[in-house]
Automatic annotation (TrEMBL):
GO terms for biological process: amino acid transport. It comes from the Bacteria. Transmembrane segments: none annotated. SMART domains: PBPb (SM00062). This is ABC transporter substrate-binding protein. The lineage of its organism: Bacteria, Bacillati, Actinomycetota, Actinomycetes, Pseudonocardiales. It comes from Prauserella muralis. PANTHER family: ABC TRANSPORTER GLUTAMINE-BINDING PROTEIN GLNH, AMINO ACID ABC TRANSPORTER PERMEASE. PROSITE patterns: PROKAR_LIPOPROTEIN.
């Protein structure tokens, strides 16, 4: 299938990821790219998150394990995807090599919790920036911009966009605690919504005819379509803008500014584009550019 339309919204951010990969992403996780560079000369102001992590020589990053192209744990236990590469780029600029990253599975519903409880140092997990989440955590980025869409079975021509769901009395699957699960309620009744903890279960429900459609960000759906061997298709009618950010402890302005500097370096060096090419770019026609970064204040 052609993905240019699907990834157009995300193109801007994708580039940033690639740059990050050059700084810190590599092939140890099975992503297929070159090993990220590690800043051996990294030095930071005492008392900052950067200094703490650099001195510890390790970092704990929350990501998803079931998101093809962005964060996927393979059968051999390795992690691959664009979010993984972003995480490795940031780690590399902290002076931390990929083998010193502790990856923690972080489904949508637990992202704020693991940050608040200090179980992770930051989260890169297809994490949409919104005002509600900003009440609990801070964000660096965005590093990518996606858009919500629908995935259906290949032969389904009745569902043509979100406006068609009510008339079709379609059962729609999404993930508990996710932005898409809230946004889709603008188009369907509550009893049409089916929720699971991860999108792979939504894909199984679609395969088994328990639901008629799956909704989330287009780039996530692209990965599920790619894995379906032609069984699923993207409706290709994105109806939101979803800026992906890096979740950090609320109020950690210096860490946010460090991540922004790292993303800019990755975009300028070409590492961001390389990270995209080695992950989501394998099924995308376009390489995105780093979007305009939000204020860290």
């Amino acid at each position: 299938m052609r993905l240019s339309k699907v990834l157009r919204a995300g193109a801007v951010v994708a580039a940033a990821s690639l740059a990050l990969a050059a700084c810190g992403g590599g092939s140890d996780d099975g992503s297929g790219g070159s090993e990220p560079s590690v800043n051996q000369e990294a030095q930071f102001e005492d008392g900052t998150t950067m200094a703490k992590l650099n001195q510890a020589g390790s970092v704990t990053i929350g990501t998803k394990f079931d998101q093809p192209l962005f964060g996927l744990k393979t059968l051999n236990g390795e992690l691959e995807g664009f979010d993984v590469e972003i995480g490795k780029i940031i780690a590399g600029e902290l002076g931390i090599s990929p083998d010193k990253i502790n990856w923690v599975e972080t489904p949508s519903a637990t992202r704020e919790e693991v940050i608040e409880q200090g179980k992770v140092d930051f989260v890169v997990a297809t994490y949409t920036i919104n005002d509600e989440r900003k009440q609990r955590v801070s964000f660096a980025g965005p590093y990518y911009q996606a858009g919500q869409d629908l995935m259906v079975k290949e032969g389904n021509n009745e569902i043509t966009g979100p406006e068609s769901l009510k008339q079709a009395n379609a059962k729609v699957c999404s993930v508990t605690g996710s932005t898409p699960s809230e946004e889709i309620l603008k188009y369907i009744d509550k009893d049409q919504l089916v929720l699971f903890d991860v999108y792979s279960k939504c894909a199984d429900a679609l395969r088994n005819d328990q639901v008629d459609a799956v909704t989330t960000d287009n780039v996530i759906l692209l990965g599920l379509v790619e894995e379906s061997n032609g069984e699923f298709k993207l409706v290709d009618k994105p109806f939101t803008e979803e800026p992906y950010g890096i979740g950090i402890k609320k109020g950690d302005t210096k860490f946010c500014e460090f991540i922004h500097d790292t993303l800019r370096k990755a975009a300028e060096s070409g590492a961001y584009a390389e990270a995209w090419k080695n992950t989501a770019g394998q099924v995308s026609e376009n390489t995105p550019e780093l979007p305009e970064l939000d204020s860290c204040a």
